[in-house]
Amino acid sequence: MTEFLAFLPFLVIVVCYELLPLCQLAVSSFTEKTSGKPGFENYIKIFTTPLYQQSIVNSVRISLISAAVGLVVAFFAADLCHEAKEGTRRRFTMLLNMMSNFSGVPLAFAFMVLMGNTGVLTLLGKKAGIPFLANFNLYSGNGLVLVYIYFQIPLATLLLLPSFSGLRPEWREAAVILKADPLDYWLRIAIPNLLPGILGTLSVLFANALAAFATAYAIVMNNYALLALQITSKYKGDVEIDKATGGALAMVLIGLMVLATAVNDCFTKKSTQGRRLV
Amino acid sequence: MNRRSRLFAGIFLILVSCYLLLPFLMTLVYSLFSEWTDILPHGFTLRNYGNLFSDPEFWSSIARTLVLCAVSVLLTITVLLLAMYVIIAVNRNLRGFMQIVCMIPYALQGVILSISIISIYSGTGTFLSNRLLMLFGAYTILVLPYIYQGICNSLNAISSETLLEAAQVLGCGKFRAYLQVIIPNILSGVFISALLAESIVFGDFVLANNIAGNNYQNIQVFLNRRMFKSSGLASAIVVVIFAVVLLITGMVLKLQKPQTGRENG
Amino acid sequence: MSYIEFRNVVKRFGDATVLDHLTFSVRQGDLVTLLGPSGCGKSTLLRCLAGLETVTEGKIFLDGTDITDLPSSSRNIGMVFQQYSLFPNMNVEQNIGFGLKMEKCPPDEIRGRVRDAVALVELEGKEKAYPASLSGGQQQRVALARAVVMRPKVLLLDEPLSAIDAKLRKSLQQRIREIHKELGLTTIFVTHDQDEAMVMSDMIQLFHAGRIEQAGTPISVYTAPVSVFAAGFMGSYNQIDGAVFSRLSGMQIPPEDMVAIRPETISLSREKTAQQGCCELSGTVLDSTPRGNVLRYRLQVEDTEFRVDVLFRSFHLFQAGERLWLTIPERDCLRILKGAETA
Q1: Of C115, C132, C133, nearest to C124 (Cα)?
Q2: Which of A76, A234, C216, C246 has its CA 20 to 30 A from that of A274?
Q3: Do at least 3 CB pairs under 8 Å connect C with B?
Q4: pLDDT tens for each residue of A75-109
Q5: Complex ipTM, two decimals?
Q6: What pTM, to 2 d.p., does this model score?
Q7: Residue A182: phi, psi to the nearest 5?
Q8: What residues in A contact C132, CB-CB < 8 Å?
Q9: Range with the lowest mean pLDDT among A122-136, A160-174, A201-215, C121-135?
Q10: Where are the domains of chain B?
């Protein structure tokens, strides 16, 4: 029995700093602010207040768009990288690994240098008369989408590459001999076999964008309705912490992430039908 | 692939690479020039770096970041190695629980983690409401998934259970066998995951900003505060931060390579 | 009448010449084996025929037409790969019917032909199974059905059994041979296993370093190797320098020749037999190893070592150290040109 003592430090830390806080978060989200009784007041408030509604909509919108665009770019990048020569592949993967670390506040700052009000590209756009660059407002929802896409691309490509390595060259050769044209090969063989990987990547990207905080905070501060920013603002300052609203908002964020995972699981099961994943 | 599609592939990959490199390279150039109000920057200078390196606040935030890195990663490694002993030597049924608990922080990420800890301990008036304690606790949880994954992979790679049994047959006590046979064998794998975790801690803004804020300013919070005061200085900080992160990632990649080579061969 | 013809085919990958001015032909309806060690170019030749690789020089003809520059899909060829070639997202039926679907066959016809193909490879009841749930042998049978259902002009099998365990391999060899007879399909089979080649083929093309070393029926290639390489690859021939053998046996062999003797043609006895047309050597048993129903002895005759295979019968057991007589029929002492790396 004494051997279980070795488990104790781990248990204490995860209970104190992971499990209990999460439970407390759930509990406080169902605790009414004024009366302290259990109830749905906080959730009703969230779904009826325009600011919070807007935050949820914006978060989902930005996450979906950035995940989708990132995925499309990553799909081609991963395919071409997979088919490229060994050396090219190694260099490109290394670059992806490196640049996937360029995130958070530094990334936000770099985009301000590029596309902020006096950013390099903004000036270039003004000089060269490119309205998209000249009038681009980084400190807005579209600005966030642009920055989010940037950090989704390397992540998505790194996540997709293993799926592409799973495509066996024999499949393409067999398909060619069986008179399939390239489109048939992609639609009937490659994409169905990539699908679990694609959906899994999409759900990771979506969750990743939903939970992203540093980039958004550095760019728009609290001047834009975004779930992650709204949640955090409820816990700022020692004096007044709004556990009830914050907890409910946090639960909505968790719910959205769980939903993304569940949808992914459901589709993956469907797309793999009866077959085991090899 | 024929020559034309090979050319197209090369161009596409180069375009993506340029796109990925552009923000950082621009920031690098920006940090090295005094003015960039035209198409081309002018006035090459190292003044931004000079100012940065002579700023005591920069050094203290670096020091705080390093303390955070060291303490949280070491603590997590120690606690996980102890817990892993129970899992491989005493009770395997706990593995499922451990797996879930260790992967939750990966899914939740910083925002939820930080506010849930603030939510439960802040304002309780006990020693737990100490912001620093909360911060270290949070970082310990943040790096949990990475270290856990590293330890698990290393244990699988050496087939730890067989090794442990072999040591016991040779008359070695279970715990001693774990300390003297298993741990030395997984150390290099754990070291790689520790480096990875360091890069996570070094790159973190959410936890430090939300939990400690100005009480314990790490390098990222420092950057965020300086960003609107002096963009020249901020660009130098970005370059320094990314250089450190690159250094760590480079070490991870370098250390990982011979290992995969051994597995293949 | 040659059905498939390779004329002076050369294939280079960069500086490496994989196929070196190959010329040979295949008769309609034959099962021809391309046999050789790995890396000798036999798979490359197959892939050139299938259109998966382009030839550097030379021409390939199939059924009277030049197919050298035709794309794979127009060559009317069926191919079975080493492994992993089934589409994992399709079940057995869908895999087999894939090519017909690409040909835009009417669904009714597809159903009928797939049913026949499933029956041909004896996989009834597995139609709805996915490749991941099939054994290696079953997967290769699906691959075979997928190839023959297209009624190709020629069926190419690229080491289809090399990833399958020994017992199952035997029965699949049998099945492939039967299917070949049933359909009369011209078939080219690539293998590095000479036993497999012996069992399966009408003709063997023995490959070595991008060229054909020897061609012929299995029996002729086995009993009359034309080169040191062929003798070494086809059986475990004893290969003895001509001058050495002259000294041992008293036969007159020119020193520029090698003598190749199959181990099973030598007989062992304690007494001298003095048979007509045989030479007799005296040697000492070094050791013996059982190999299935055959016992292989190693004997030392002066400075030369001989391998001798004897049917495993208990009254024939000799002990290590025993002095014995080796009786070798002179007609089984094959002479091979020493430098004869090529035919």
Answers
A1: C115
A2: A76
A3: no
A4: 999 999 998 888 889 999 999 999 998 999 999 99
A5: 0.88
A6: 0.85
A7: -55, -40
A8: 275-278
A9: A122-136
A10: 1-45, 57-264
Using DSSP's 3-state secondary structure scheme, residue A235 falls into coil
Q: Are C35 and C207 in contact (CB under 8 A)?
A: yes
Strand partners, A140: none
CB atoms under 10 Å from CB of A23, counted, come to 13
Which one-letter DSSP state was computed for residue A38?
B
Quick one: closest CA in B to A155, which residue?
Answer: B20
3-state DSSP of chain C? CEEEEEEEEEEEECCEEEEEEEEEEEECCCEEEEECCCCCCHHHHHHHHHCCCCCCEEEEEECCEECCCCCHHHCCEEEECCCCCCCCCCCHHHHHHHHHHHCCCCHHHHHHHHHHHHHHCCCCCCCCCCHHHCCHHHHHHHHHHHHHCCCCCEEEEECCCCCCCHHHHHHHHHHHHHHHHHHCCEEEEEECCHHHHHHHCCEEEEEECCEEEEEECHHHHHHCCCCHHHHHHHCCCEEEEHHHHHHHHCCCCCCCEEEEECHHHCEEECCCCCCCCEEEEEEEEEEEEEECCEEEEEEEECCEEEEEEEECCHHHCCCCCCEEEEEEEHHHCEEEECCCCCC
Does residue A173 sit in helix, strand or coil?
Answer: helix
State the burial class of residue C273 (Cβ atoms within 10 Å of its Cβ: 0-12, 13-18, 19+).
Answer: exposed
The candidate with the shortest Cα–Cα distance to B115, out of A168, C243, A21, is A21
Bridge pairing between strands C57-62 and C65-66 = antiparallel
Name which of A177, A191, A277 to mutate to probe chain C: the one with the most chain C Cβ atoms within 10 A of its Cβ.
Answer: A177
Give tens-digit pLDDT for C274-311: 778 888 888 999 998 888 788 889 999 888 889 998 88
Smallest Cβ distance to A179: which of C103, C130, C132?
C103
pLDDT at position C111 is: 94
Whether B145 and B105 have beta carbons less than 8 Å apart is answered as yes
Contact A6 B83 (CB under 8 A): yes
Give me the mean pLDDT over the A11-36 stretch.
91
Give contacts of B105 with chain A, Cβ < 8 Å.
Answer: 18
Rounded to whole angstroms, how far apart are CA atoms C323 and C282?
A: 7
Q: Among A80, A98, A103, select the one facing B12 at the smallest CB separation.
A: A80
> Percent of chain C, pLDDT > 90?
43
Neighbouring chains of A at 3+ CB pairs under 8 Å are B, C
Residue A138 near residue A116, CB atoms below 8 Å: yes
Rounded Cα gap, residues B64 and C160, in angstroms: 63
Position C233 confidence tier, pLDDT thresholds 50, 70, 90: confident
Q: How far, in Å, CA of A67 to CA of A264, rounded? A: 14
The DSSP code sequence of A131-160 is HHHHT--SSSHHHHHHHHHHHHHHHHHHHH
CB-neighbour burial class of residue B205 (10 A; exposed 0-12, middle 13-18, buried 19+): buried
Residue range B57-264, CATH number: 1.10.3720.10
Q: Does A273 touch chain C (CB under 8 A)?
A: yes
Tell me how many degrees the CA angle A125-A130-A131 measures, rounded to the nearest 5: 100
Burial (CB count <10 Å: 0-12, 13-18, 19+), residue C262 = buried
**Phi, psi for residue B257 in degrees, rounded to 5:** -60, -55
Contacts of A274 in chain C (CB under 8 A): 91, 128, 130, 133
Cβ neighbours of A168 in C, within 8 Å: 84-85
- The more confident residue out of B148 and B2 is B148
Contacts A95 to B, Cβ<8 Å:
17, 20-21
Please tell me which chains touch B, using 3 or more CB pairs under 8 Å as the contact test: A
pLDDT band of residue C77 (cuts 50, 70, 90) is: very high
Mean pLDDT of chain B: 87
